[in-house]
């Protein structure tokens, strides 16, 4: 039986090399395209024929977008609404990747269980935050790291700490999502192995297999919840970082 870490292995579908870099199309690339396809279909069906009294799909799309918009209103303010398309795109892409990894299919893959994917998303968010901060405030953006009213010595000490903390944001944002998705899938695989292994003891399969099966069912439900929560946390932190860039809080 395959080990719990084999589900995260990258498989090259079509090798591509450019300038000495490996740009091969992999199973991770495929599932990110599948996620984009699912998202596109969901948004198209929900918005193709808008009605005054929305149907289920239209209501679902409107609910998700309003959810993101209200989150920006609460954490950034009215000026954060212009970034609603960005945060909505990040949220729904991470959500789709997380949930597709829960599909009970041999070929299913979770792109967000790879640090390269989550770090790429986090760097995009971080870069946009920096661009917005400097475009809006210029060099005054550095006052984000300098506490008001502090002396030179204390202010310099705090500046170094806050600046290093700011630079670590894309890494903590990426690792949080990556670690949660990886750990959950490993647990599901381990307990799934217990179900098969302990459930094969001769005439007592139900006695030995029922407990790990029950645990696996519970973990599956928990992992679905974590998939949704982690998408929300990723979008929420992106909103908080935008608040710092816009309001310098």
Question: Helical segment tally?
Answer: 7
First-last Cα distance: 52 Å
SSE class:
mainly alpha
Q: Major sheet: order of its strands?
A: 1-4
Q: What is the strand content?
A: under 5%
Q: Compute the gyration radius: what is it?
A: 22 Å
User: What global shape is seen?
Assistant: globular
Give the topology string: H per helix, E per strand.
EEEEHHHHHHH
Fraction of helical residues: 55-70%
* Largest β sheet strand count, sense and barrel closure: 2 strands, antiparallel
Count of all domains: 1
Work out the number of β strands: 4
Averaged pLDDT: 86
Parts with pLDDT < 50 across at least 5 consecutive residues: none
Describe the structure in brief.
With 249 residues, the protein is mostly helical.
